[in-house]
């Protein structure tokens, strides 16, 4: 007779919780790493000490262990919390990309560091609430990590907090006409989608080659679905069509719901009421000449206080958006969804409707406008002695461009500026000279990376690409805005009012090590111990200023930096070298600034439209959402410029250009042209006849036998082989010979050859230059 098996008591075979220690026993490195892994984004030094019962002097040993783990690249610090490299924060935004075999949604984090490899797959769990729309493929959602185990191909599991964007139903593409008797078809912009036959009766006046959006209206039993054109954007050569692609591909909302438009149209101009009257203060707006809205105005004067000899008073007035956009309103919900305005070469996709952004809140010349203003007092050394915030009615004395203001201060005036030089512009520049002393003493990170701009023709096509000159007028406004932002953060901290900080973390140990390896190839060093400050990076940049390596070193230093973001947890702003910083100066175009305005109104009793109670629990999620929206806008703006330049270059295929190597990867070289700033790629399989290895330390491709080296920053001559406007891509072939590997590069190569940093970039090929068996005559040594 078989004895019946009796189950053990519940929990009898349960393993002890990882990391659990007996009282008085200090945790090992493995215990710390396990706890950090089990609590992604939640494990700070305080939480670790509490979990393991570490008190008193033992905290010093814990601090040293955590520092060692960081220097070894085993953990990273993020907003006073520790995570493993490649881990996800507790709250983040995902793009829903597919479904698993069980039908569950899979997502990828919208923000992901490419250096950490491919983005992880996240199993996204949804609720059954009717209050929230159910997400689908193509949507974006704010999610929170759960403690569930890995599931199939998903490395993480998260639950939806909020659906941010629903995928658009329309499909974007190029209308192509076939021969007589054949239906036209759509060539989709998204290469993952199939071509679609278009109903000839539903062309909506679109022509061959136009960018259009279509809606699939019926599908037969056989053949491809048929579609109707719902909107025509015009020729693909126009900026509007190109920016439309960016809006579509990045899922950027750009059509205001009717409820939002109605609410905006009902808004009325503000009267003085309980506001302070600042209309006699000659505040100026100084912006780019093509600025669509004006949300900041400035004025300065010498401080008449005898105890502050040589000091200055600076006034910064910011458009009072909070008066018109109330918490919970349709305008507020839409601004929250958009997160920020998006700027293309010939148009703006505003965060708020034009009735608000370009009319009632824009600080127009000679018109009364509501503002939230700060009055700051500085001593003769540029140190801020105090500040006060005011809710005012102001009237801009003049609207100037940066160049117009700069020329006036240099003695070249026009009809508008000639009356402003003595009483307004000179005091502004005197105050800036004073503030610059404090800025120089603070030593923020001073990267010199010119930004390319596109000048368009009247028909929306590219005229030319240029790099605008950086003037003192730009720096003046920038420094005044920084000081206003710091003042806002300090006031809200002092009043213990919730806020979203603008934070910038220090570089991770892994990125610093990559920077050290690179600098060693230039006989330069980065300190290996101690906390690095921006001044250390500035010292490196100063050494290469006005040398051929200057641009290269600036870009590599930039790549070593963390990305700024919005969060209610303050970790300071590393790049600006500031302990506290919040965005206050652009509420027309950034939702974070509107949050700060509402906080000031609540903290200082400036009205009944301040930050609502209970917002504290939502700020972490709001910060994650608008940080993702900011990243999305940056990508859309960059993609549009790339596509416009690729369109512009299609007529120049076969031409040769001077440029430099702007990026090096295993698969090839990224090239940036000198005259236009256009970016393109050279596949490694088209370079030379050698085996090439990617050397991470020197940012180089190095020939295995010849030592021929192509390094980041090298000047080269290239030929344009292909321009792909839809992808915004250019492909070049190399005409210049690489440098024969120098001492430092060879040493780095030898080190990499024996380790993991070097990798074979391609197979050997028989032709020297992209299929041409003869070497080019224009190749350089």
TrEMBL record:
InterPro entries associated with the record: CSD2, NA-bd_OB-fold, RNase_II/R, RNase_II/R_CS, RNase_II/RNase_R, RNase_R, RNR_Ribonuclease, S1_domain
Reaction(s) catalysed by this chain's protein: Exonucleolytic cleavage in the 3'- to 5'-direction to yield nucleoside 5'-phosphates
Main location per the UniProt record: cytoplasm
Span list, region Disordered: 1-30, 742-781
UniProt-annotated location(s): Cytoplasm
Top EC group: hydrolase
Enzyme Commission number, as recorded: 3.1.13.1
Xref: PROSITE patterns: RIBONUCLEASE_II (PS01175), S1 (PS50126)
Biased composition (Polar residues): 769-781
Compositionally biased intervals (Basic residues): 746-767
One Pfam match: RNB
Alphabetized UniProt keyword annotations: Cytoplasm, Exonuclease, Hydrolase, Nuclease, RNA-binding
Domain S1 motif, chain residue ranges per copy: 654-735
Domain of life according to the entry: Bacteria
Gene3D superfamilies reported for this sequence: Nucleic acid-binding proteins
Function: 3'-5' exoribonuclease that releases 5'-nucleoside monophosphates and is involved in maturation of structured RNAs.
NCBIfam families: 3_prime_RNase (TIGR00358), RNase_R (TIGR02063)
Assigned protein family: Belongs to the RNR ribonuclease family. RNase R subfamily.
Name of the featured protein: Ribonuclease R
Organism: Roseibium litorale
Gene name per UniProt: rnr
């Amino acid at each position: 007779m078989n004895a019946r098996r009796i189950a053990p008591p519940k929990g009898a075979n349960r393993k002890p919780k990882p990391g659990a220690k007996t009282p008085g026993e200090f945790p090992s490195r493995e215990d710390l790493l396990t706890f950090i892994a089990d609590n992604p984004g939640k494990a700070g030094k305080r939480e670790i000490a509490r979990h393991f019962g570490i008190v008193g002097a033992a905290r010093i040993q814990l601090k040293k262990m955590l520092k060692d783990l960081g220097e070894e690249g085993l953990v990273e610090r993020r907003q006073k919390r520790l995570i493993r490299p490649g881990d996800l924060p507790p709250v983040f935004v995902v793009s829903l990309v597919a479904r698993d075999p069980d039908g569950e949604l899979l997502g990828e984090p919208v923000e992901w560091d490419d250096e950490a490899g491919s983005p992880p797959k996240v199993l996204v769990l949804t609720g059954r609430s009717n209050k929230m729309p159910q997400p689908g493929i193509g949507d974006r959602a704010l999610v929170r990590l759960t403690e569930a185990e890995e599931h199939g191909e998903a490395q993480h599991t998260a639950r939806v907090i909020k659906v941010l964007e629903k995928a658009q139903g329309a499909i974007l593409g190029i209308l192509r006409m076939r021969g007589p008797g054949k239906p036209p078809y759509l060539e989709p912009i998204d290469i993952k989608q199939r071509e679609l036959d278009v109903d000839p009766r539903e062309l909506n006046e679109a022509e061959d080659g136009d960018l259009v959006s279509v809606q699939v209206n019926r599908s037969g039993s056989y053949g491809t679905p048929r579609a109707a054109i719902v909107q025509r954007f015009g020729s693909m050569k126009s900026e509007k069509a190109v920016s439309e692609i960016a809006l579509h591909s990045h899922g950027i909302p750009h059509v205001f719901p009717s409820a939002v438009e109605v609410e905006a149209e009902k808004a009325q101009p503000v009267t003085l009421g309980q506001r302070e009257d600042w209309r006699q203060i000659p505040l100026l707006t100084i912006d780019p000449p093509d600025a669509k809205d004006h949300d900041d105005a400035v004025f300065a004067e010498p401080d008449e206080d005898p105890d502050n000899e040589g000091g200055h008073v600076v006034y910064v007035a910011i458009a009072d958006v909070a008066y018109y956009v109330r918490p919970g309103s349709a305008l507020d919900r839409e601004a929250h969804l958009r997160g920020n305005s998006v700027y293309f070469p010939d148009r703006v996709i505003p965060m708020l409707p034009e009735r608000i952004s370009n009319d009632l809140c824009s600080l127009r010349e000679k018109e009364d406008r509501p503002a939230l203003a700060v009055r700051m007092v500085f001593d003769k050394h540029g140190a801020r002695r105090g500040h006060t915030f005011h809710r005012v009615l102001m009237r801009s004395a003049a609207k100037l461009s940066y160049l117009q203001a700069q020329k006036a201060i240099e003695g070249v005036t026009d009809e508008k500026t000639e009356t402003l030089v003595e009483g307004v512009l000179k005091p502004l520049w005197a105050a800036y000279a004073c503030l610059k002393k404090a800025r120089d003493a603070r030593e923020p990170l001073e990267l010199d990376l010119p930004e390319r701009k596109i000048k368009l023709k009247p028909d929306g096509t590219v005229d030319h690409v240029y790099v605008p000159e950086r003037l003192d007028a730009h720096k003046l406004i920038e420094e005044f805005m920084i000081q206003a932002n710091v003042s806002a953060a300090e006031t809200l901290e002092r009043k213990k009012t919730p806020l979203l900080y603008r934070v910038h973390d220090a570089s991770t140990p892994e990125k610093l090590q990559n920077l050290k390896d690179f600098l060693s190839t230039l006989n330069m060093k980065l300190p290996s111990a101690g906390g690095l400050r921006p001044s250390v990076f500035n010292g490196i940049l100063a050494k290469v200023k006005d040398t051929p390596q200057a641009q290269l070193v600036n870009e590599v230093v930039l790549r070593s930096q963390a990305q700024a973001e919005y969060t209610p947890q303050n970790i300071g702003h590393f790049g600006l070298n500031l302990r506290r910083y919040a965005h206050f100066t652009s509420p027309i175009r950034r939702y974070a600034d509107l949050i700060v305005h509402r906080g000031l109104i609540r903290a200082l009793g400036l009205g009944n439209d301040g930050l609502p109670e209970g917002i504290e629990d939502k700020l972490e999620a709001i910060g994650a959402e608008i940080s993702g929206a900011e990243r999305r806008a940056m990508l859309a703006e960059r993609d549009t410029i790339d596509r416009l330049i690729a369109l512009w270059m299609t007529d120049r295929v076969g031409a040769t250009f001077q440029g430099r190597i702007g990026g090096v990867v295993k698969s090839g070289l990224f090239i940036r042209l000198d005259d236009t700033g256009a970016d393109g790629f050279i596949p490694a399989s088209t370079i030379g006849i050698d085996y090439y290895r990617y050397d991470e330390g020197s940012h180089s491709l190095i020939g295995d036998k010849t030592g021929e080296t192509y390094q980041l920053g090298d000047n080269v001559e290239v030929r344009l082989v292909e321009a792909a406007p839809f992808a915004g891509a250019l492909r070049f072939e190399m005409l210049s010979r690489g440098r024969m590997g120098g001492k430092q590069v060879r040493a780095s190569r030898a080190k990499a050859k024996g380790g993991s940093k070097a990798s074979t970039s391609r197979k050997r090929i028989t032709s020297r230059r992209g299929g041409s068996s003869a070497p080019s005559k224009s190749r350089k040594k």
